[in-house]
């Protein structure tokens, strides 16, 4: 009996002690570190997740939520969401201080950043210290061997831009053929006698219509289409007018942009209508809408991976990455099967050469190569293509900007030859359009998170080790100091002498050691693709539709909401 009472008491006190310890841990977890930046009150376990979620629902977008927190607590805001300490920086001084501080050069850790690359942090974007230094140096060095940053890269970009131009021409040509076929059907449904037959229109001229809607005022002709006098006038007007095609424009650039990088990375390009790639890019786009730069629910609350994998987004995140890994694994296997050690075709071959040697750093591995592919694939498909989406959204909404761009292109390049990167130094207005497009994109986006590698300070605020650090670029690229930040006005980057100028706080590709390694490629892509398309086409709103410049798709990076444009060949 005594032993039973003793066991019961012992168990009782153990339970009580555990509860006390749990309550103590919860209490300590809800206390902010001394000197930590101001921010919402922390609750046990949740931190300030409830308040951030409320503000997110109220403001609609993450960058607006961060700006709302800035107005309430100041330029440096301290948060805790689940297990993650997060500091959001909202002005030029604090952002610059963080981006140029070696103590803040880390990248975030946790389930989100490990799950995306086979269970541990790998690749180029979200790694740090020695792994990042070695792999970044290797990739940059050998990408240059295959054209990155050199004249041959310009050739690749120019070829891909022209491929997109031809794709759009084909769409317009097909639309015109469909209209003519419809007219033919209408004609065949009518009763004709020989006296009604007015004209025979030659079919071989159909393709010429797309490049030259009229020739010296003479009517173009289409074969095997007989029309009476009334019907002839309808076809005549159709062929003399410039045919228009309505296309979705927000995601028209993904394959083109990816090809410019993938040709150097893996020595191949994809067709613009490649169904597998298009499907993969669509599910990636969907995935990147469901998480953001701060993370995902299963990252802030890791236990949710096991008790609520679907609700927390973990299942979708993992399954999407598995499809991407499968796609890239097939590319790698194809390279391994056709690999010739002494004749590297691309970066993937060079990396395989290292792996086949007996002397290489432990940072090199096949999984690291695949992780590099993941990073380059997603970066190539995501950021530049969204910038181009914003660019053409605003070119449609601000037709005077498009008109001025047409005028500069006609003056400097003309219509007979495609644009090249060598034209860039002579085209002030087009360069300004590139700068303004980047401002509109990054002005709705947060930077790739940094992490404090050790205890440090930012503008006097104490930042504990492993705190995630977020720069809200909206507060430096879209604040009121720009005068009219929501207006697409490339002239803000042009001085009185017609030279390009940029303010100190304009750094859409970041600054410091983690400045974007693809900056030159991105700028070149945006310039060439935009110039090539504007040289040949006019982009207009679709009748009855007006895309919004204030509604975005939120996520890892912001993008314009799906919109359509009416595209026609310039006459």
UniProtKB/TrEMBL annotation:
Coiled coil: none annotated. One of its GO terms (cellular component) is cytoplasm. The keyword Iron applies. It holds the Pfam family p450. Gene3D superfamilies: Cytochrome P450. CDD domains: CYP15A1-like. PANTHER family: CYTOCHROME P450 15A1, CYTOCHROME P450 508A4-RELATED. This is Methyl farnesoate epoxidase-like isoform X1.
